[in-house]
Automatic annotation (TrEMBL):
Substrates-to-products reaction catalysed: orotidine 5'-phosphate + H(+) = UMP + CO2
Family: Belongs to the OMP decarboxylase family. Type 2 subfamily.
Alphabetical GO biological process terms: 'de novo' pyrimidine nucleobase biosynthetic process; 'de novo' UMP biosynthetic process
Pfam families: OMPdecase
Protein name as annotated: Orotidine-5'-phosphate decarboxylase
Domain Orotidine 5'-phosphate decarboxylase per the UniProt entry, residue ranges: 1-237
Listed EC numbers: 4.1.1.23
Keyword set, alphabetical order: Coiled coil, Decarboxylase, Lyase, Pyrimidine biosynthesis
């Protein structure tokens, strides 16, 4: 399970607003409360960027606070011409020591490759996303081979990277696609957002998406971190994280 740190000053419990760095204070308590159930944390960079320099500071402190054995994802959805991507990669892999970053594939090979040039770092490429707009481009069928565009993204990008540096974003909201995606990317890990607040089915995703290494990193952000607005919010988040993690363990047993 991956806990999404989509920390929004308008949504965190009010009493935290009196602390010196409310975003970090919220994240600190969430991390303390959930780390025994999580294998990854995914701060969504937009939530920090929106706050300007103090947001970047909260992000840096949060990254430093996450236990070192837990995988970190900079959910930044970057990707640009080669020399720019190189600096995005440097920003998230060197200046900040994230283990991975979400990358948009739209600009193609030279925009993705700079992220793959770092040892022990991962690219998480958007393949089939969880939002309604995913249908606008990702589902367009290529008449030459009748494949939707997102399948081309997966097939092509697998030529650029080994399976231990490339994951794909596969939204939970269209579980019907997961079986097919697992066929064309049997070994890659999938980052699966869209359970919880967006309504995706963990059961369906597990049924079709699990592989012998597990292969699924299931993210929930709002469904865990905003489960309570009260002073004991972290305890409630912990209970919710435990519940989801136990459900995942059950599904892992059932489907592998
Ligand atoms: O790359 C992502 O993480 C992502 C891809 C996608 O297809 N859908 C999606 O919701 N996400 C992110 O996953 C998180 C989902 O948040 P919740 O819906 O609150 O669990 C947000 O940070 C989204 O930006």
């Amino acid at each position: 399970m991956c806990v999404g740190l989509d920390t929004d000053l308008d949504k965190i419990p009010r009493h935290l607003l009196d602390s010196e760095d409310p975003v970090f204070e919220f994240n600190r308590q969430i991390i303390d409360a959930t780390h025994e159930y999580a294998v990854a944390y995914k701060p969504n960079i937009a939530f920090y960027e929106a706050l300007g320099p103090r947001g970047w500071e909260s992000l840096a402190k949060t990254l430093e606070y996450i236990p070192k054995n837990i995988f970190t994802i900079a959910d930044a959805k970057r990707g640009d011409i080669g020399n720019t991507s190189k600096l995005y990669a440097k920003a998230f892999f060197e200046t900040m020591d994230f283990d991975s970053i979400t990358v948009a594939p739209y600009m193609g090979e030279d925009s993705v490759k700079p992220f793959l040039e770092f040892d022990n770092k991962w690219v998480i490429l958007l393949a089939h996303t969880s939002n309604v707009g995913s249908a606008d481009f990702q589902l367009i069928i290529d008449e030459r081979d009748h494949r939707p565009l997102y399948e081309h993204v997966i097939i092509k990008s697998r030529e650029w990277a080994t399976t231990d540096q490339l994951m794909f974003v596969v939204g939970a909201t269209r579980a019907d696609k997961v079986e097919r995606i697992r066929e064309i990317a049997p070994e890659n890990f999938f980052l699966v957002p869209g359970v919880g607040a967006q309504g995706g089915s963990l059961e369906e995703v597990s049924k079709y998406g699990l592989n012998s290494e597990c292969g699924l990193l299931v993210n929930s952000s709002r469904g865990i971190i905003y489960v309570s607005q009260h002073e004991n919010f972290a305890k409630e988040a912990s209970k919710e994280a435990a519940k989801i993690q136990q459900e995942m363990a059950r599904l892992l047993d059932q489907y592998t």
